[in-house]
Design a protein that fits this description.
about 140 residues, homodimer, alpha/beta, binds ligand 2BA
């Protein structure tokens, strides 16, 4: 692979597959989502439905924002808030058949992209880290 | 600038200078830090001392982690915890005289780097977004 050809490579081999991606489900509470985020250490994760279709993204940011009261952070409300109410959608996505250069372009403005197929099934994620690693590898040739 | 020369460019022109960087100060409470993070929308920011020297990094992650009690998130403790107790140090840094390719290399494992001089003065940050933008620009030539 020459240093220009890799731009036309399929993103498939660079994807972190869905079973390795921390996520939460629609219907979960914001409290549960905050625990998943804190324990996994990720700042933002996908929200999926029971068919593993992509429904949104949730971050610690969005959760804290939702409970920022006038004089204190209203953590007592967390169990009563659904992740559906705080998540962001649509989600920055990329189709499984796209090429590396499209991934690079979209990752300028997003730390990661959710990879989907024609049925909107969540296949995995493409991250800035993986793309930067590839760029470093090919750029010196 | 040819597509190989840009790797040897100084990082200086790619830095977001310190006055544009959201940060907190040593001695601030974790509650104040959480408010700064939530309001600015950044997941992680530098912690500086009164002489603008770099002392650590603080993220929403680190704060929530510190108050994860056995059966509920202990938000009432936030005003009593100092950012000094939860911040991470040392900080991923890069010297002002380094080149773009060094920045690319370090940003594989860190979303941003703090730029410092010989006196450990905080000069600004170098982010993945800026580096990806440059890579896209030069890689097609
Ligand atoms: N457990 C860990 N081990 C090693 N390094 C870690 C790590 N957690 C975070 N990092 C480092 O910090 C960067 C930012 O992570 P963040 O959680 O804010 O942002 C992450 C997170 O929101 C999401 N992400 C990455 N891997 C994930 C996974 N397995 N499950 C769910 N979300 C993931 O994609 C964003 C960008 O990830 P990226 O790898 O480019 O960049 C990561 C990686 O370089
Ligand atoms: N207000 C905003 N406007 C437009 N896009 C925004 C934004 N806030 C976040 N983003 C986008 O989300 C990415 C991750 O932001 P995060 O806050 O997790 O992670 C950020 C944050 O921890 C830090 N950072 C960036 N700019 C900062 C600033 N002005 N002050 C303090 N920290 C900053 O560097 C990390 C990487 O930033 P990067 O630009 O590569 O990547 C940013 C950017 O692409």
């Amino acid at each position: 692979v020459t240093s220009r050809d890799f731009l036309d490579m399929q993103i498939e081999e660079f994807i972190i597959s869905s079973e390795k991606v921390a996520h939460v489900q629609v219907g979960n509470s914001a409290e549960h989502a905050l625990l998943v985020l804190t324990k996994t250490g990720y700042s933002s994760v996908p929200v999926l439905d029971f068919k593993y279709r992509l429904k949104g993204l949730v971050s610690t940011q969005m959760i804290t924002d939702a409970i920022l009261g006038l004089d204190h952070i209203e953590y007592e409300r967390l169990p009563d808030i659904k992740v559906d109410d705080v998540m962001q959608s649509p989600v920055p996505t990329i189709h499984i058949n796209e090429k590396f250069k499209k991934g690079l372009d979209l990752l300028i403005n997003h730390p990661f992209l959710c990879v989907v197929d024609d049925e909107e099934t969540f296949i995995g994620i493409l991250t800035r880290r993986v793309v930067l690693k590839q760029l470093k590898k090919h750029i010196y040739q």
